[in-house]
């Protein structure tokens, strides 16, 4: 398959995996480092730059709305990919779960909401740390796989369940799923992909090479 052109692929991805594994420390990083990392990710992404920026905005607006509405009574992670929003985490009741989903659907420019929140006690800090490690391990294993680009698959882990998002072909999805499934600490893999044809993948990858 076509690879992203003019990028030191392994070094770039390893750096991004390292950054992604320590979100709690992001406030300690200079703004320039954060911006540079985001720029590198955007350049290699199959989404348009407009969709990438919109996804960042959707995540911010949704998190802010949920925080204002529910405060610390819920633990819900919001991940937007190509304007499709994945909700993961824990809520105290089925009613709250439905309300969380409604709030996400009300955000401007959201195409779809996939709610994977569960009713139960909020996850512990140690559980969240374990999930962060699992996410990093999956991403690291993606780097060396020759059947797809790690740039094209977003990884979210909640309570040992790995959710995979991205604009990918069926064969790329299968390859990514197999890598994630066989990674230590992964209990289950849930595919939340947006599927594209091989022809569309080649077209998008060619556009990436022109950036």
From TrEMBL:
It comes from the Bacteria. PROSITE patterns: BON (PS50914), PROKAR_LIPOPROTEIN (PS51257). Keywords: Signal. Residues 54-121, 130-197 form the BON domain. Pfam families: BON. SMART domains: BON. The keyword Transcription does not apply. InterPro entries: BON_dom (IPR007055), Lipoprotein_DolP (IPR051686), Transpt-assoc_nodulatn_dom_bac (IPR014004). Residues 1-26 form the signal peptide. PANTHER family: BON DOMAIN-CONTAINING PROTEIN (PTHR34606), OUTER MEMBRANE LIPOPROTEIN DOLP (PTHR34606:SF4). This is Transporter. It comes from Pseudothauera lacus.
């Amino acid at each position: 398959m076509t690879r992203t052109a003019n990028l030191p692929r392994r070094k770039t991805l390893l750096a991004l995996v390292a950054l992604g594994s320590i979100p709690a420390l992001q406030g300690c990083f200079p703004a320039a480092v954060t911006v540079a990392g985001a720029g590198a990710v955007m350049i290699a992404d199959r989404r348009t730059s407009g969709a990438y920026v919109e996804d960042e905005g959707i995540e911010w607006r949704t998190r802010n709305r949920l925080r204002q509405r529910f405060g610390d009574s819920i633990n819900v992670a919001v991940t937007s990919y190509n304007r499709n929003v994945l909700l993961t985490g824990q809520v105290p009741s089925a009613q709250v779960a439905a309300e969380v989903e409604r709030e996400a659907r009300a955000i401007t420019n959201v195409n779809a909401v996939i709610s994977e929140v569960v009713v139960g006690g909020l996850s512990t800090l140690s559980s969240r740390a374990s999930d962060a490690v699992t996410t990093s391990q999956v991403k690291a294993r993606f780097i060396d796989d020759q059947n797809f680009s790690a740039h094209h698959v977003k990884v979210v882990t909640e309570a040992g369940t790995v959710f995979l998002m991205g604009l990918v072909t069926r064969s790329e999805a299968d390859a990514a799923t197999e890598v994630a499934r066989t990674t230590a600490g992964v209990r289950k893999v849930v595919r939340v992909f947006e599927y594209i044809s091989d022809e569309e993948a080649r077209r998008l990858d060619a556009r990436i090479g022109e950036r």
